[in-house]
Backbone:
């Protein structure tokens, strides 16, 4: 019932929910570009329309009263970004414990423009030995979907080049806020 309702809503809004669902049982799902709160609403519509089970990561302040319970029920995991150590390792271990697990991360870490992506998703996927699946909400084509599963090589430049190629034609609601796909130079 929920699936049909969400599909109906998406169609009425003019959106296509693409059926290219990941076949993997474990993966880190990259959500890009993330330039609007509408991205979350469309992602949740997609989640329920397709019967997907994934968690998502957001700043811990979104999980306070009065919406904290709802956010957790929708699959949210709060992260205190001031604590820079341990979170990716904890999630990597959780991948090993669960028979199926997908976690969505917006590598920009914000809906505002940023010069660099946060690299946590990359390190988490490498540490857990799981692929990165690219996902998108494209306002230009009004499509929500998935791209390929990438098994990261450890060569960050080569891996990021593949990611950039996939996202080259994906447009956020506010394109000027989409961050560059790349990590901060060391």
Residues:
């Amino acid at each position: 019932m929920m699936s049909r309702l969400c599909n109906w809503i998406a169609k009425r809004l003019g959106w296509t929910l693409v059926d290219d669902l990941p076949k993997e049982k474990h993966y880190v799902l990259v959500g890009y570009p993330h330039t609007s709160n509408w991205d979350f609403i469309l992602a949740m519509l997609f989640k329920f329309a397709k019967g997907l089970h994934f968690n998502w990561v957001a700043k811990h302040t979104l999980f306070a009263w009065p919406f904290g319970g709802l956010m957790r029920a929708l699959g949210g995991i709060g992260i205190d970004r001031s604590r820079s150590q341990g979170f990716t390792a904890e999630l990597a271990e959780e991948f090993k414990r669960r028979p199926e697990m997908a976690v969505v991360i917006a590598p920009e870490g914000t809906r505002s423009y940023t010069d660099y992506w946060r690299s946590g998703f990359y390190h988490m996927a490498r540490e857990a030995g799981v692929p990165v699946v690219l996902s998108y909400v494209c306002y230009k084509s009004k499509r929500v979907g998935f791209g390929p599963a990438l098994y990261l090589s450890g060569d960050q430049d080569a891996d990021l080049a593949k990611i950039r190629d996939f996202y080259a034609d994906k447009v956020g609601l506010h394109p000027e806020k989409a961050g560059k796909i790349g990590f901060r130079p060391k």
Notes: The helical segments are 2-12, 38-50, 68-73, 87-97, 120-128, 156-167. The beta strands are 16-17, 26-31, 55-59, 76-79, 101-105, 132-138, 143-150. The chain has six helices and seven strands.
